[in-house]
Structures are given as structure tokens and as C-alpha cells.
């Protein structure tokens, strides 16, 4: 999910790509999107972007012309319009040619040049949104990166709020106080401070002051160590023990990666993955918090950890480096693998059929033997019965014929 650094890098991307580009016409929305239409039409306007926490604002500014009255009569925009974007789970901006529009480009701004180029808001999962004539959301606090002093004062002055009764890992996602912090940032910040994620937030923050006494010092190297012992030995609070300070410096580290965290054209995240120390790193523990969000940590979870919560199964990241390789070598390798797979299937079929035939043949032979063994017994029995019957008939004929002959002789 895009967090504060990603949205700021998105604003830098828009300013870089749209510098000197003149846009024209109406702002078009996709038919699938349920977000509102943008009622803005102008023959010539420019686009600039700014960010604040987890929001990005695009400003559409009409270019000055000699006849503003005629432009207003024709339905053309005269005043600038602000469009506030929230990226949701997968939103980002992309600047391409008209023939190379991304699949999920839900809001499009067309340039006046030929060939035409398009600035698109791409959101595959459609959890993002935009608000024409919008302003920064009222319920969000100051930005953790670019409004640090007001952000720090806002947190320290509201520690009596009931929101700080919750675990520190869940409070860090409260955009009312930590506008810009997301899932991977909270894991990295708590890991560097060696703070268990499920301890009361007020116990962690109540010792901090509204002013950062170490703001001008260089940040201490990030080490996995017990900061409480170090602070007790030196007698002075260290910069690493200040959670609010790290909420400001850690996101700026992502911004200073040189655009590797957010690059929709190259999609190179190797630098960002190498920067991660805790989030989705092998050897770390994970557990779902009370809101169902996965928390990555090391060591003990803390006394406020959910009792019945189970650590989700870690999904293995499949390497997709060769998925889009369409070279001749790749095709030959694929054809070889397919041919070997087919041969294996054929061999399995050939080896399996003789077994079945052998079994069938053996059963047939057994049945034939049993028939051969049983048929002679039946024949002998039938022959014996026929012989007995024939002998009985002959004897009967003899006994019957004998007396008749005797009687005939007597009469004679």
C-alpha cells in the first residue's frame, strides 16, 4: 500500500514529467470507475502536484489568454481546479503516449501536442479515489515529513486522548496523529528503536517533549540494541530513542533512495528491498493486530498482543525476472522444457499400459484354467449318469422280454 514517501514521490514524478507540457480538452474518466466526474474543460492548461501525508493534490491551472470573457461563455474553465487523490492499495500516476495507455487508467489528462501524450491515474484494485475542487481531508493530522514541528506538537498535546490507550503499533496507523505512516514504516521504526509493538502507546510517548532537542544533530546509525541501557549510561536522551523523530527521518530515507521506491516506468524496487530491515524480511516474526493488519517485529510482541491471533503464512516472493523475456533463447528453452515434459508423459503412459495388460492376461489365464479343471469333472459326471441310465434301461428290457418269451413258449 502506498504510504507517505510513495505519495510524495508521485507528486515529484508528476512535476517532472509535466514540466513545460500544455494540456487541453476535457478530463476523461473510465466507464468502470465509480469516482465522480471532473467538470474541467480548457483549451490550454498546466498541471502541478503537491503532497501531504497520504494525499496528493493536482492543480489544473488555465493558461492566460487575451479573451477571458469569450472563453467563459464557451464553457471553458477560467479558475484553477484542485483535485485531491488518495491512492488506496495500488494507485499511481503514469505519463505515456495515447497509444500506450495502461489497462487500469481511470482518470486521464490529454496533452495538446501531436502525437498526444496522456497523464493517467492508474489503479488496478480501484480502492483509490479523487475529489474535484477538494481540499486536504480535515480528519488528517500534519504531514510527518514536511510539517514536522506541528506534527510533533499535535501528538504530544493529545496524549490524554483515548486513542493512545491502544498499542503503539496500532496508534502509528492513526492518520489523525501520524499522517503518512503505513504498515512498513511502523515496522521499520519500532524495529530500529527495539520497542515491542504491543505496548501502550502512552507509555512510549509520554516522556517526549513537543520540541525536538536533537533536531539539528546528525542521526545516529541504526543498530539493533537496547536504547534504554545506553540512555541510562550516558544520562542523556539519544536521538534513536525519540520515536517521533524517527517518524520524520525514516520516511525521508525512502524519499532519498533516488526514486527507486516509486518508478512506474522501470518498476525497480531493488534499492527499496535492500533498505528494509524488518518488514517482510526473513527471520522476523509477524502477527495480526486487533485491526487485522500484519505487524512485523523482532523479539517479544508485548503485553497487549492479541491472544487468539496467529501469524499469517509468509508468501514466497516468486522471481518474475524471466516472465517477460521473449528472446529466441527463452523460446528455445521453453520449447525444450515442453518437449521433455511431453516425453515424460508418454513414457509414463507406455509403462503403465503393459502392467494393466499383464494383470488382465493373468486374470484371463486363471479363469481359463479354472474352466479347464471344472469341465472334465462335469463331463465325467454326465457320462456316469448316462451310463447308469442306459444300463438301467437295458436291464429293464431284459426282465420284461424274458417272461414274455417264456409265456409264449408255454402257450405253444
Structural class by SSE content: alpha+beta
Please tell me how large the radius of gyration is: 43 Å
Query: How is the largest sheet built, in terms of strand order?
Result: 1-3-4-5-9
* Secondary structure: number of strands: 11
Low-confidence runs (pLDDT<50, min 5 residues)? Answer: 218-240, 316-331, 392-408
Strand content: 15-25%
Count of runs of 4 or more consecutive helical residues: 10
Shape: globular
Q: How many angstroms does the end-to-end distance come to?
A: 135 Å
What's the quick description here?
The protein has helices at residues 4-17, 68-73, 148-156, 168-171, 183-193, 201-205, 227-234, 243-255, 270-275, 328-411; strands at 23-26, 28-29, 41-52, 55-62, 81-86, 91-97, 105-110, 117-123, 129-132, 285-288, 294-297. The protein is of the alpha+beta class and 412 residues long.
Amino acid at each position: 500500500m502506498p504510504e507517505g514517501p510513495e505519495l510524495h514521490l508521485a507528486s515529484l514524478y508528476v512535476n517532472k514529467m509535466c514540466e513545460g507540457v500544455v494540456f487541453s480538452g476535457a478530463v476523461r474518466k473510465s466507464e468502470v470507475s465509480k469516482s465522480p466526474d471532473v467538470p474541467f474543460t480548457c483549451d490550454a492548461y498546466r498541471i502541478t502536484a503537491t503532497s501531504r501525508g497520504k494525499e496528493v493534490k493536482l492543480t489544473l491551472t488555465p493558461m492566460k489568454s487575451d479573451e477571458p470573457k469569450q472563453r467563459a461563455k464557451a464553457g471553458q474553465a477560467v479558475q484553477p481546479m484542485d483535485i485531491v487523490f488518495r491512492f488506496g492499495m495500488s494507485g499511481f500516476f503514469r505519463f505515456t503516449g495515447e497509444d500506450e495507455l495502461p489497462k487500469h487508467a481511470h482518470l486521464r489528462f490529454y496533452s495538446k501536442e501531436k502525437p498526444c501524450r496522456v497523464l493517467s491515474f492508474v489503479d488496478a484494485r480501484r480502492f483509490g479515489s479523487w475529489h474535484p475542487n477538494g481540499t486536504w481531508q480535515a480528519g488528517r493530522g500534519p504531514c510527518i515529513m514536511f510539517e514536522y514541528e506541528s506534527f510533533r506538537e499535535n501528538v504530544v498535546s493529545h496524549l490524554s486522548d483515548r486513542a493512545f490507550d491502544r498499542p503503539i503499533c496500532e496508534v502509528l496507523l492513526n492518520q489523525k496523529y501520524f499522517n503518512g505512516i503505513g504498515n512498513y514504516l511502523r515496522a521499520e521504526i519500532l524495529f530500529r528503536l527495539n520497542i515491542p509493538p504491543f505496548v501502550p502507546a502512552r507509555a512510549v510517548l509520554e516522556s517526549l517533549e513537543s520540541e525536538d532537542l536533537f533536531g539539528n544533530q546528525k542521526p545516529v546509525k541504526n543498530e539493533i540494541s537496547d536504547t534504554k541501557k545506553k540512555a541510562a549510561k550516558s544520562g542523556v536522551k539519544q536521538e534513536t530513542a525519540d520515536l517521533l523523530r524517527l517518524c520524520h527521518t525514516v520516511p525521508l530515507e525512502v524519499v532519498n533512495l533516488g526514486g527507486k521506491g516509486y518508478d512506474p516506468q522501470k518498476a525497480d524496487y531493488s534499492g527499496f528491498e535492500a533498505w528494509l530491515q524488518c518488514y517482510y524480511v526473513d527471520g522476523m516474526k509477524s502477527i495480526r493486530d486487533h485491526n487485522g493488519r500484519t505487524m512485523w517485529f523482532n523479539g517479544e510482541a508485548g503485553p497487549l498482543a492479541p491472544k487468539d491471533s496467529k501469524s499469517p503464512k509468509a508468501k514466497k516472493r516468486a522471481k518474475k525476472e524471466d516472465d517477460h523475456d521473449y528472446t529466441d533463447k527463452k523460446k528455445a528453452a521453453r520449447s525444450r522444457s515442453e518437449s521433455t515434459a511431453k516425453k515424460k508423459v508418454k513414457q509414463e503412459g507406455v509403462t503403465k499400459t503393459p502392467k494393466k495388460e499383464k494383470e488382465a492376461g493373468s486374470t484371463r489365464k486363471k479363469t481359463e484354467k479354472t474352466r479347464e479343471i471344472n469341465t472334465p469333472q462335469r463331463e465325467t459326471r454326465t457320462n456316469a449318469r448316462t451310463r447308469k441310465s442306459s444300463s438301467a434301461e437295458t436291464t429293464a428290457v431284459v426282465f420284461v422280454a424274458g417272461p414274455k418269451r417264456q409265456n409264449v413258449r408255454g402257450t405253444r
